[in-house]
């Protein structure tokens, strides 16, 4: 009798007599182990244009004497957020704004530069103020692009601005619908 016949007879006998031989019993056990399997399903996103990814907004220069009265401000400087290559299924982009708030006037962004009594005001193209925690929606057009026009300026809520640099960091997070 050859080896193949013996294996067949053993398997046939096990099936005929309903031997339950657990597969684990046939393998040598070295203890318990776990295997975690994970993944993530993500929504397709738009490409953030290079001028938006690491963009800078130049608010220009203003004489400190123009910011001596409470509520005085500089001229607006316009800038935009640009997204391209949005997936065909994306119709709207939600923008979440965050950044340091002015400690005395939280509707403005904090100036981290050397100038004193100056904050940064940001607004959308309708003039509606954007501050830390603001959320805005951008429609995606037929070319699969989205654009939001914004403007920023220096403002001295309490007046008596002291000359120096003006800077702030505004962070953007995007959600897609």
UniProtKB/TrEMBL annotation:
One of its GO terms (cellular component) is pilus. Residues 1-27 form the signal peptide. Keywords: Signal. The keyword Repressor does not apply. GO terms for biological process: cell adhesion involved in single-species biofilm formation. Pfam families: Fimbrial. This is Fimbrial-like adhesin protein SfmF. It comes from Hafnia alvei.
